Each structure stands twice: as C-alpha cells, then as structure tokens.
Amino acid sequence: PAGDSTGAVLALPAPGGGGSGSGSGSGGPIKPPLGSVDEDELPEAAHALMRRAAARAWDKRTVILLFATGDFMDLAFNQMQATNALGITNFVLVAMDQKLADVRARSGGKGEHVPGLLLPRVARGDVTISKLNVIGERQRFGLRVLEAGFNVLFADLDNIFLKSPAPLLAEGMGDIIGERIWGRPLSLVKKWGAAICTGFYFVRSNRRTVKIFRQTHRLIAEKLAHNERKIARGNKPWQEQRPRRRLVGEQLVLLPL
Q1: In degrees rounded to 5, what are phi and psi of residue 84?
Q2: Comparing 101-110, 171-180, 210-219, 233-242, which segment has the lowest mean pLDDT?
Q3: If 76 and its partner were Cys, which of 68, 102, 178, 225 is the partner (CB 3.0–4.6 Å)?
Q4: pTM over 0.70
C-alpha cells in the first residue's frame, strides 16, 4: 500500500519535472504582489514545491492546498486519488503533524510521489496543531502561499472534485470565489454580510486579496489568543454555557442559568 489503508498509489511524476516555476501562464511570471515572501514560513523548498504544483495547473499559477493530520490520512489519499483521476494534479498535501508527514514520505514507488510537505511551523516546533488553532494555521499558511504570488484553492478533504473547477475560476470571474456559509442568522448577514465557507474557496493573488487575508489572519490570531487565555483560567470556550430559552405563548423568554 502507498501509505494509506486502501492500497492505492498516486502516479504523479517525480519532483523535478513539469516546469521551472516561472509560472508563464496567461498572467505572466509569478511574483509576490507586495514584493516579499516570508522565508521562515514558506522556505525555499516549500516555495519550489508550490512552483511545481502551479506549473501543472490550468492557468500555471493556481495551487490546491489540502490540509490533514495523520488521523485523516485515508480521507486525504482518497481525495487526491479522485482528483488525480480527473487529470487535476496541481494539489499539495500539507501535513499538519509528523505522523502524516512520515506516511507521505513513504508513499509511492519509483517515479511516483505524493506532492506535499510538513507544515513549516510544525516542522520547526513553533506550533502543535489542536482543535483551537487548526483553522488559523491553515489560513496562515495559505496566506504565505498567496503572498508569494500563487492563486490558492482551499479544499477540505470531504470535497470531491467531479470535474475541473477551471471554468469557475477563470480570470475575470472574481478575486475571491466561494460559497456562503449557512446557519448564520439573517439579522447578522444583513448587518455584517455573509461569511465564506472555508471548506472550499478560491483566492486570486493580488495586492487587495493579500491585504484582506492579512487582516483576517490578524483577527483570527487575536481570537485564538483570547481563547487561550480563557483556557489558562480553566474555561473551555467551545463548551461555554448559553442562556436557556423557552417559548411562552408567542414570546421568546431567556431564562437565567
């Protein structure tokens, strides 16, 4: 087996082929829109991996980022196999723990490999992934790829491609393309706008989107720090009590806890 329990192998070309990384698609060379790349969080090896993935894309500049830990390796391999079967090969598996990174390194045979890497912040020991920080770390790495000039398509492992998304993501279709997340009260949507479901969305790299993502990352980091302070005091933010509600006639009454 190629590292997963299904025994299937991803038959992608070994690293080194598929373009020099110049990104010579319709948009020209891939360049950081704001002129800099965070080399600590997107080191040269990771940057080169993104260039190779983008070279296999329909526009020569889009990278599909798949995030997983070792507990979800079967889902990860299933998703990649299904995507590869459609001829979509510009994806990168971002292992968020050492367990999955080790499996990925052992996967494939001669001339085959699973394109991916261990999340650089995890590799350096800067962070350990938990239920509190997993979304923030995904967004943070995606921001670094976006800053480097690559378009980014985020796809959760339970999103299975049925056909190429290229027509939906063509130049001129929008800089941020996604789906509204459901379940938010209409009153909040009217006041703040609809949120984007982070399970599947596309971001085109340019000065505007990088600035938006930097602001989003800052807000996520502030919220994470707030929750970590609560946990340090013995609270669990995801289990916070909320007022109980009871209908009296046609009136909604909030009851004290």
Answers
A1: -60, -35
A2: 233-242
A3: 68
A4: yes
